[in-house]
Specification:
The chain is mainly beta. The chain has two domains: 121 residues, Jelly Rolls, CATH 2.60.120.10; 124 residues, Jelly Rolls. It is 8% helix and 39% strand. The chain is built from two helices and 23 strands. The strands form four sheets. It has a seven-stranded antiparallel beta sheet, with no helix packed on it. A six-stranded antiparallel beta sheet has the order 1-9-6-11-4-14, with no helix packed on it. Strand 18 and strand 19 form a beta hairpin. The longest helix has 14 residues.
Length: 305
């Protein structure tokens, strides 16, 4: 929720209502690059284990744009464009705050066990950071900050590769970096750098009742990375012949699931949040939604060999 302002158009930042699919097994919100947000996703990071009373941020970017989301819990974001300051309280996983470049931002008032998700338009580049407020004030006077629009963003259409028939042994756990700080830890993921694909879509499942099961489908082309940013859950993998179960319970560990595998998420702990990074935009034709259909798909593999 935003502190009331005179006119929304007066400021470059804005709140974005993300798609929310309400489901008795847990709600899902999704963000697709250059569709729901006005930029491509180069970097994703999440902030967690923030002690009470600590602040994060207190910097600006010269060129990068960001979306900030409260995956769980709540926190405040104070934005400063060099002329005035506004405070936004983020406490809904289906709302994102778009923060344009050349905006000084500070995060504070974190609730217990809160997790802050940030999607960024650029890779980490220390030269893009402005860490001194005096320097920010000097630079913002002479700058003409960009305003991104969904209508101006475009992405070339690619060709779908041939269907993939991986096995459960092609799945792997990825240990992501942890940047430790007394004000909370950060885990960053750079598309095509510490994961094997560019990030086209991000979704997260939250408000998950105990004993629920999610997933229960396979993809023909799409790669996924699943992360338990809060709590824990199991992922049962099935290639039609072999099965394997992986427990995710650390926000710095991700499970890479390549195409062609049936995946079921279950045994969610209370307050669990599942974050997914994917290689493709949503395409209903890429989904295999019934196990009978999946078994036939895997049999087609044998005929193709």
């Amino acid at each position: 929720m935003a502190t009331p302002i005179k006119e929304e158009a007066e400021y470059r930042e804005r709140m974005i209502e993300l798609p929310r699919i309400i489901d008795r097994r847990g709600n899902l919100s999704v963000i697709e690059a250059q569709k729901h947000i006005p930029f491509g996703i180069s970097r994703v990071y999440w902030i967690y284990d923030v002690p009470g009373g600590q602040k994060r941020g207190s910097h600006a970017f010269r060129s990068q744009h960001e979306i900030i989301i409260a995956l769980s819990g709540s926190f405040d974001v104070t934005l400063d464009d060099g002329k005035s300051r506004r405070k936004y309280t983020l406490n809904r996983a289906y709302q994102g705050l778009y923060v344009p470049n050349m905006t000084w931002r500070t995060l504070d008032n974190f609730s217990t066990n809160s997790v802050c998700l940030v999607l960024s338009s650029g890779d980490y580049d220390e030269a893009d950071y402005i860490r001194s407020y005096k320097r920010f004030k000097d630079e913002v006077r002479g700058s003409q900050p960009a305003v991104l629009s969904l209508t101006t963003a475009g992405e070339a259409e690619g060709f779908l590769p041939e269907p993939e028939y991986n096995t459960v042994y092609d799945c792997s756990l990825i240990e992501f970096p942890v940047i430790k700080n007394r004000a909370g830890n950060i885990t960053p993921v750079h598309g095509a750098e510490n994961i094997p694909f560019d990030i086209k879509r991000v979704f997260f499942i939250y408000d998950i009742p105990c004993a629920s099961q999610r997933g229960m489908h396979a993809h023909k082309h799409c790669h996924e990375i699943l992360i338990a940013t809060s709590g824990s859950f199991d992922v049962e993998l099935d290639d039609g012949t072999n099965k394997k179960t992986i427990t995710l319970n650390r926000p710095m560990s991700g499970l890479h699931i390549p195409p062609g595998l049936w995946a079921t998420e279950k045994n969610y702990s209370s307050g669990a949040v599942c974050l997914a990074l994917t290689s493709e935009h949503y395409d209903s034709e890429d989904y295999i939604n019934t196990y009978i259909e999946f078994k036939k798909y895997r049999q087609d593999e044998n005929r193709a060999i």
